[in-house]
Amino acid sequence: LSLKFGDIGNLKEFVIRLLLTTSYYQLSVQNWFSLHRLQLLYNHSVQATFNATGIHAPATYSFHCEHVSSLQRYDALLIPSSANDLSQLWEVTFIDFQIQGFNVQEGHFAYARDCASFFSPAILMGLVMSLVLLLVLAYALHMLIHLKSLDRHYECKASPAYFAQMKDSDMGDEKEPLRNSGNESYELRNQQFGKIYI
């Protein structure tokens, strides 16, 4: 497949040539097409050649990718064919790239197979965070299940009140009977202990 641009600036007869191949794969039981190589030609000679990687789709589909480029920031689907080639001097980027090599009907692209992988970085990060949250939840449930009540080990009994013993002679003037129905009650008045009702 050749895209002819004619004369562009100093480039005479500038052409982008896409070499497509088709193969039959028994595992998928259908033909697939692949972009094998991309060539840049001007002045009637090949100036740069890039090998294409990962650009393939079933023959009845088209291939679509947001960026097909030789730059690393776009995953570099186009790789220079040789270190000695002039392709090292070129930076090629196709934006909103879509291609279909075979079985084109009525001049329209067929359903597109996109280059975005299922496990994109965002999806992988979401899966990792979900795994971390599940581990934290499992640990919390484990701790709750094995939580033991404090009643088994400690008996919560109120300690008896402690009163300092006082001599009867000291208590004689400090106890005052309280009026109560039926029971005899006393109010102890002592600055050291405060008011205590018995």
From TrEMBL:
The protein's name in its UniProt record: VAS1L protein
Cellular compartment(s): Membrane
InterPro entries registered for this protein in UniProt: Ac45_acc_su, VAS1/VOA1_TM, VAS1_LD
Chief subcellular location: membrane
Molecular function in Gene Ontology: ATPase activator activity
Chain ranges of the V-type proton ATPase subunit S1/VOA1 transmembrane domain: 117-154
PANTHER family from the UniProt entry: ATPASE, H+ TRANSPORTING, LYSOSOMAL ACCESSORY PROTEIN 1-LIKE (PTHR12471:SF3), VACUOLAR ATP SYNTHASE SUBUNIT S1 (PTHR12471)
Keywords: Membrane, Transmembrane, Transmembrane helix
Top-level division of the source organism's lineage: Eukaryota
GO CC annotations, alphabetized: bounding membrane of organelle; cytoplasmic vesicle membrane; endomembrane system; proton-transporting V-type ATPase complex
Transmembrane segments: 118-141
Organism: Sinosuthora webbiana
Family under the similarity heading: Belongs to the vacuolar ATPase subunit S1 family.
Topology in the lipid bilayer: Single-pass membrane protein
Domain V-type proton ATPase subunit S1 luminal: 1-102
GO terms for biological process, alphabetical: regulation of cellular pH
